[in-house]
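On clarity, I found the account of how folds are encoded harder to follow than it need be. Since the whole study asks how a given chain folds, the encoding of that fold should be made plain. The format is easy to grasp once an entry is in front of the reader. For illustration, here is how one protein appears when written out as sequence plus structure tokens.
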Amino acid sequence: MAAFNSLVSRLVAFWRKTNLHQALPWLFLIISLTGSITKELQLIPETYFSNSRNFLNVYFVKVSWGWTLLLLFPFITLSNAHNRGWSFLLRRLSSLVVATAVWYVCTHSFFYIEDVTGACYETKAMQVVRGEFTMKTDCRGAGFVWHGYDISGHSFILAYSSLMIAEEIAPMMDLKDGSLQSQAYVALVLDVLYIALNALVALWVLMFTCTSVYFHDISHKVLGTTCGLLGWYLTYRVWYPKPLSPGLPPLQRKQKRQA
């Protein structure tokens, strides 16, 4: 338990000293642009991560929203329930419903755009069109190749998930000041979740970088990243500070009042 507490204290200090919470959106834009330029110039050779079947991509990135919800739900529940009523907790948990709606609308919009802008070809040479297939799933299911405007869903979800996690783990800075010292079990569970969420953000940034360097065209990645940033900004910066909303995490609410 002491080891967990020490690591959490170091992570909290890292977020405070680096101001990473504020810099993260710009970091994703920079990585997306520089990684895309690097890909176009072919400056980085192929590695294990340039294969889309790599372990982290298959078992983490492709189900990244599931991992994000799996860890955020108990963390938000425990960190927001302390000394607060059920109405506040349920209001804060509704932010996960909103986020899931953002994820669903954006990803399905990407699929739709790829369908309406694409065509089915017999091979990657794209010389023979198979006009009987008008959707990507049908085309690929028949063993052919679909080519359309493929907005990067990975760039979107990895940026959006990371920014959302960064917002929701902010209360840990206040909780570590001693408000949970009398609840050892809750404090331990929060420590474990906090460490896991930090590890998840690090993994999402790593895989976002791999996506930028190895996959998609530059406009696909920049547009996907921009959608992720807009989803975060319009909720946590525009809507959530208002009364009729899921609200901000407790620490941010306190900072807003003091500003």
Summary: The chain has one domain: 2-40+53-252. The radius of gyration is 21 Å. The CA atoms of residues 9 and 245 lie 31 Å apart.
